[in-house]
Amino acid sequence: MLFASFALSLLTALAAAAPASQPEANEARDIIHPICLSPVYTGTPPNITAITPGTVVTGLYVSNSDTSTAGSAAILSTDTTIGRLNFDDGPGTIAAYMGYCSPFFLQIGTSDKSYKPLTWDFTEVDNVWDAGYDKIIKAKASGSSEFLACKGLKTTASDPYTLYLQTGTDRPVGLCATTKLKISKNGLKLAGTK
Fold this sequence. Notes:
Layout: H1 2-17, E1 29-32, E2 39-42, E3 48-50, E4 61-64, E5 72-77, E6 84-88, E7 93-97, E8 104-108, E9 115-121, E10 129-130, E11 138-139, E12 147-151, E13 161-166, E14 175-179, E15 181-183
Antiparallel strand pairs: 1-2, 3-15, 4-5, 5-9, 5-13, 6-7, 7-8, 8-9, 9-13, 10-11, 12-13, 12-14
């Protein structure tokens, strides 16, 4: 109870000290989260979007099938609530803060097929992605920028698509679309950068 009271007091003080002007629709600002001690962004954060014209998945966003479970599948859906998205081409990581102080990192799973499942996990692995604003995302190890977005045969139109990195020609059973992914430049990238 004492901690909750302290956090509320700190948030109230931060709100009172904030400038009176409101950010514009696509402007993002840093605010320090009192519990995580990491920046929390306001405004419209960047998204990872399927961009291949003429496919059923064009314009859908990368999200998480279960934001409470590490290792859950990366999906394409209409959901834009992935949380704060960070990417860093140096170590080659893509991370999303989905309601946690620690990020989920976008990982490439293993498979004996040419399509590799994408998952969100708490474990950071370097040199996975070549990524940047308005740049097609590419897997560093395989050099592939092709992704499969697939649904099972018994799904509805509103069900999300499961994401795979495509490194060959194999395809899962079901409805699949080949697409490329890009990080939109809606907000800020890494904390403290412009």
